[in-house]
Please model this.
Amino acid sequence: MAETANELQSAHAARNALDALNALAAALPDARVGHRPRRGWRAPRRLRGRSLGAAISTNMTPMIDVVFQLLVFFIATTRYASDERVIAMDLSRRVAVTAKDAAHSETVAPAPPSIPLDPFAMRDEALHLEVRVDGKIVAGAPLRRTFTPSELRTALANELRGSGHPNGMFEPAFPVVIAPADNAPWEIAVEVLDAAVAAGFRNVGFEQRTSGTEAGQ
Amino acid sequence: MTPLIDMAFLLIVFFVLVSQVTSAEMVDLSLPRPTSGTAKQPDGSERIVVNVIPATDGGAAGYRLGKRDFTADTAGLQQLVAAIAQAMKGRPSVEVNIRADRATAYSWVRPAMTAVADALTESGIDRTRARVRLVVLGGGGNG
Model:
């Protein structure tokens, strides 16, 4: 009898242990792999619709809003220099910088003094282009004419000795000195320089003054 | 989401740095726009920029080299010459760009060019080798 009582007692203990395990399993969320969820179990409301690994997350939307605001601001306020061009010049001596051979301007040596084909050609003089305040350009000694900026380029090109104008007055290496008036806007001065270079002159520069309020040289 | 935010921050940093660099050497002015289009694209080589800071009525408020400002009088121009010569020391092939407003009177641009010429003389650079550029706007002609 004692044996049966013993068996009964151990069976009772085993059932008790099984019940406890079942209760524990029922209390745990069904997260274990391969464990089939208990029928009727539902995740807590805050976790519903998500997997357990991504339960913690922050709301990114305001930060992204601000980031894009900053991005747009800096893109809009950055000024680009991409529209800027440069006209090369060597101050008093501007050598061989036409649009065509501008790439070689740094390596081309100053042109040797050309032998004038015309015995009356000027050698040491330079063509003075005086730029007045009203935008008119007064050409000096050999030309003695007044131009408007728009007609300057073709007028100079017509005077240039070249393939189209064998009897032109000037050779491309003939120095052109631009002397803008003090009050002449920089725009017109640059326009005249540009026109002379475009006409084909290779030796165009601004007048150098040695007196005045500037630092001098 | 994370790569997107990474890219956005990278772009922000880029534009912040770029705007700082460009504003340091570029005064806000309207450059002349010659019509013939002989101007060419800058070749991207090393350069120093001399700005003529425009004032009202065609005048100039001073000159700017890098982040330093110089007054438009004799003392300021002497400092400008020294600063340009300092900047060109040891690198004679550096480009010198001159930027001036289209409405600035020539009498205010001339000192800048004279200062560059003086700086060349001072630092012993051959004038025919010096690379001086006038900065203009493109798009007038075919350029």
